[in-house]
Amino acid sequence: MDRDARIFVAGHRGLVGSAIVRALRAAGHTHLLLRTRDELDLRDPVATAAFFEKAKPDYVFLAAARVGGILANQREPADFIRDNLQIQTNVIHEAWRTGVQRLLFLGSSCIYPRLAPQPLREEYLLTGPLEATNRAYALAKIAGIEMCWAHNRQHGTRFLAAMPTNLYGPEDNFDLDSSHVIPALLRKFHEARVADAPSVSIWGSGEPRREFMHSFDMAQACLFLMNLDDERFDGLLGSDEALTGRFEPPLINIGVGADISIRELAETIAEVVGYDGLIEHDRSKPDGTPRKLMDVSRLNALGFRARIELKDGLRHVHEVVFTSSQADPA
Ligand SMILES: NC(=O)C1=CN([C@@H]2O[C@H](COP(=O)(O)OP(=O)(O)OC[C@H]3O[C@@H](n4cnc5c(N)ncnc54)[C@H](OP(=O)(O)O)[C@@H]3O)[C@@H](O)[C@H]2O)C=CC1
Ligand SMILES: C[C@H]1O[C@H](OP(=O)(O)OP(=O)(O)OC[C@H]2O[C@@H](n3cnc4c(=O)[nH]c(N)nc43)[C@H](O)[C@@H]2O)[C@@H](O)[C@@H](O)C1=O
């Protein structure tokens, strides 16, 4: 991407979008196109079309979505499938119509079957039943992958779908009902330490395993992919199965390649925060998928590796969010 390229970061105030904006600015990009949801609701096809016609982006990072943790996904499946289908349909369609050079669509590791072999390889897409707690969200994301693929096949576009593992970082959602596990536990343990509370309750059995990546590394991976030379980028764009006989969607996993149990995560967060009380389990809350470990060999083979160790990343987020330090995680 040239430094003066017109780059639309959809969802630029979110966890991932804000990290992408920081990474783009650090790399010297000056022509960033940024709109809040109030300025441009991407569920609205007319407003989205008008924006693309006027702003004419060269590149699009599609990090706008309805996002939430296990409970939000379970309680509001209609909102999750509707908003995400609408946002991605409008953005992908307009990106094709207005001649965007490259688009990066962000999906999620929950697109893979609930009981897929581990680590999760890109080829496991559509090979089995999905996890019930986030099936609506996952199906919207799968539709997004197919939309990128269909546009590449029919229109020769260069739209790539990246599937990140579970993410965390400074601009996360820290609401205890709707957030993901890391922001929830950072807040719960921090508040318990301040209040000198005897115990902290975590959801589920603590046995599920998850892989976590800091939003700094996630943003670096996104820029790395969008900056690949044509030969390597085009090599990720999938083939036409009807012609080649091979199932090759335009799909690449983003992750760190290592996971831990939720119980171990809770113990690590307690240590980072300095809390030494008891950890209890609220078994009325769902566990979700037993394990989601990404196979990141395709990304690694291209030359990208995540840099931030989980404990360092947790310390960074705790400092920035709960002690107002502006430390750089890398
Ligand atoms: N967080 C995670 O653990 C993971 C996230 N992902 C994916 O990464 C991407 C980014 O997620 P994340 O940064 O965590 O999400 P956030 O919830 O932090 O941010 C979402 C962003 O999307 C914008 N947005 C939401 N709805 C609309 C809309 N209707 N019109 C315009 N903008 C909208 C929000 O805008 P505003 O700020 O103006 O409200 C916000 O900036 C998503 O595609 C998500 O599925 C994938 C795997 C894991
Ligand atoms: C990224 C991914 O995120 C979602 O899936 P998830 O990985 O299951 O998300 P989660 O981070 O909310 O939970 C991870 C694990 O942690 C446990 N857990 C313990 N205590 C708390 C707790 O206090 N809050 C939360 N949220 N979880 C807790 C929780 O019970 C679960 O076992 C998808 O819906 C979908 O959005 C998606 O793609």
UniProtKB/TrEMBL annotation:
A GO MF label: GDP-L-fucose synthase activity
Protein name from the UniProt record: GDP-L-fucose synthase
Domain named NAD-dependent epimerase/dehydratase: residues: 7-228
Site label Important for catalytic activity, positions: S108, C110
InterPro entries tied to this protein: Epimerase_deHydtase, GDP_fucose/colitose_synth, NAD(P)-bd_dom_sf
EC number: 1.1.1.271
Entry-linked PANTHER family: GDP-L-FUCOSE SYNTHASE
Active-site residues per Swiss-Prot or TrEMBL entry: Y137 (proton donor/acceptor)
Domain of life (superkingdom): Bacteria
Protein family: Belongs to the NAD(P)-dependent epimerase/dehydratase family. Fucose synthase subfamily.
UniProt keywords, alphabetically: Isomerase, Multifunctional enzyme, NADP, Oxidoreductase
Biological classification of the source: Bacteria, Pseudomonadati, Pseudomonadota, Betaproteobacteria, Burkholderiales
Catalytic activity: GDP-beta-L-fucose + NADP(+) = GDP-4-dehydro-alpha-D-rhamnose + NADPH + H(+)
Recorded metabolic or biological pathway in which this protein acts: Nucleotide-sugar biosynthesis; GDP-L-fucose biosynthesis via de novo pathway; GDP-L-fucose from GDP-alpha-D-mannose: step 2/2
Residues that bind substrate: K188, W203, R210, D287
Keyword Isomerase among record annotations: yes
Any single GO BP term: 'de novo' GDP-L-fucose biosynthetic process
Biological role: Catalyzes the two-step NADP-dependent conversion of GDP-4-dehydro-6-deoxy-D-mannose to GDP-fucose, involving an epimerase and a reductase reaction.
